[in-house]
């Protein structure tokens, strides 16, 4: 059987058809350039240092721990916790039997010393008279003079001993030295107390203060700041307080420093032992704009940020940086309240480029 051979011009024909089809195929359309997505933050100036709060306890400024000045056995306790006392009011009494005996002994010694002095002085006067008449020697006069001076000294010691005995007897009654309220009693009738024993604690009501514990990092802010106080029981009312005392050394256990604030306008609701909040703010706080570090853009001409203009396009604006923090940057100049700043995607922007805001943060 005879097979017909393929014409030699067939491959050339197929190639020509392919070229024709390729020439007739339409050109691909150019894809439109997409808008750059960015994250934008609306900025506002705020104090550079935020207010700091500390937990405080209301304490009295003056708190007296009273104790007996002589040892003895407690006979009576005349006050209890919560009693109001005045200056000179008796608080407790010791058994004064031994103290009275000591006073009587001192009185007897004083009488004996007084009699001995009077006798020695009379004898001296007689010797002086005899000496003028030539019947007494100088040695006798000197000896009697010494005896008289010794008797005078014994009389003086007896007078002082009687005074001490009377004082000791008066110390058997413990009296209040300030006007206030009794906040603690540590003695009971029948108890034997010593002079170093705290018997009764009195707190003065006229002056109240707030006590806080300050960490080392906040010492400067507490010393120079403006403070206010609010009670946990009434947080809506605020009291102005002033720093009265700052501890020069840290507590060995907590490593904090005690600060005491006076409360000049403390009223009846401010009670001892209450818990409060002390808020510390700067006296003249510098205002800054706080932005993430990712918002800065620097091409060698200094720090700048991208600000969204009125036409919705980014504009590079130079700024003045006050400080760099771990995550934020503090800006003092170059921005205004209400400006919209690109905080994410700033490194990929060009002036006038079309953008698409993904999310707006309001502060």
Main sheet overview = 6 strands, antiparallel, barrel
Widest sheet: strand ordering = 3-12-15-14-13-16
Helix content percent band: 25-40%
Strand residue content: 25-35%
Characterize the overall form: elongated
Instruction: Give the overall average pLDDT.
Output: 86
Unreliable residue runs: 1-6, 21-33
Distance from N terminus to C terminus (CA atoms, Å) equals 94 Å
Number of strands: 24
Q: Would you give the CATH topology of the largest domain? A: conserved putative lor/sdh protein from methanococcus maripaludis s2 fold
Structural class: alpha+beta
Rg calculated over all Cα atoms: 48 Å
In the CATH hierarchy, what is the class of the largest domain?
A: Mainly Beta
Which properties best describe this structure?
363 residues; alpha+beta; Elongation Factor Tu (Ef-tu), domain 3; OB fold (Dihydrolipoamide Acetyltransferase, E2P); 6-stranded antiparallel beta barrel; 4-stranded antiparallel beta sheet; elongated; disordered N terminus; MdtA-like_BSH; transport; coiled coil
Can you characterise this structure?
- The protein is α+β, with helices and mostly antiparallel strands and 363 residues long.
- The protein folds into 4 domains: 38-47 and 286-362, conserved putative lor/sdh protein from methanococcus maripaludis s2 fold, CATH 2.40.420; 52-60 and 206-281, Beta Barrel (Elongation Factor Tu (Ef-tu), domain 3); 72-94 and 172-202, RNA polymerase II/Efflux pump adaptor protein, barrel-sandwich hybrid domain (OB fold (Dihydrolipoamide Acetyltransferase, E2P), Beta Barrel); 97-170, Orthogonal Bundle (Helix Hairpins).
- Helix content is 25%, strand content 35%.
- The chain is built from 4 helices and 24 strands.
- The strands form 6 sheets. Strands 3-12-15-14-13-16 form a 6-stranded antiparallel β-barrel.
- It is elongated.
């Amino acid at each position: 059987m005879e097979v017909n051979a393929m014409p030699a011009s067939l491959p050339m024909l197929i190639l020509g058809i392919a070229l024709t089809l390729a020439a007739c195929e339409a050109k691909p359309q150019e894809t439109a350039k997409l808008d750059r997505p960015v994250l934008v933050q609306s900025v506002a100036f705020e104090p550079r240092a935020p207010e700091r709060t500390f937990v405080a306890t209301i304490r009295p400024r003056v708190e007296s721990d009273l104790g007996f000045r002589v040892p003895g056995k407690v006979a009576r306790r005349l006050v209890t916790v919560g009693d109001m006392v005045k200056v000179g009011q008796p608080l407790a009494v010791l058994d004064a039997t031994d103290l009275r005996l000591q006073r009587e002994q001192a009185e007897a010694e004083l009488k004996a010393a007084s009699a001995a002095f009077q006798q020695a002085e009379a004898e001296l006067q007689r010797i002086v008279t005899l000496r003028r008449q030539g019947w007494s020697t100088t040695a006798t006069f000197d000896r009697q003079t010494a005896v008289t001076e010794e008797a005078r000294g014994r009389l003086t010691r007896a007078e002082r001993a009687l005074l001490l005995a009377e004082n000791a007897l008066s110390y058997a009654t413990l009296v209040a030295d300030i006007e206030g309220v009794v906040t603690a009693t540590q003695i009971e009738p029948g108890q034997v107390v010593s002079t170093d024993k705290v018997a009764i604690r009195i707190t003065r009501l006229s002056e109240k203060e707030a006590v806080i514990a300050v960490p080392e990092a906040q010492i400067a802010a507490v010393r120079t700041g403006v403070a206010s106080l609010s009670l946990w029981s009434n947080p809506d009312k605020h009291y102005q307080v002033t720093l009265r005392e700052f501890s020069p050394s840290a507590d060995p256990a907590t490593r904090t420093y005690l600060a005491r604030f006076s409360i000049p306008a403390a009223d009846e609701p401010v009670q001892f032992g209450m818990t409060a909040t002390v808020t510390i703010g700067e006296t003249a706080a510098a205002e800054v704009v706080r932005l993430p570090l990712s918002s800065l853009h620097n091409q060698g001409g200094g720090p700048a940020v991208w600000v969204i203009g009125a036409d919705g396009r980014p504009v590079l604006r130079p700024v003045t940086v006050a400080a760099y923090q771990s995550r934020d940057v503090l800006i003092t100049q170059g921005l205004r309240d209400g400006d919209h700043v690109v905080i994410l995607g700033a490194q990929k922007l060009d002036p006038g480029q079309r953008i698409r805001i993904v999310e707006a943060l309001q502060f």
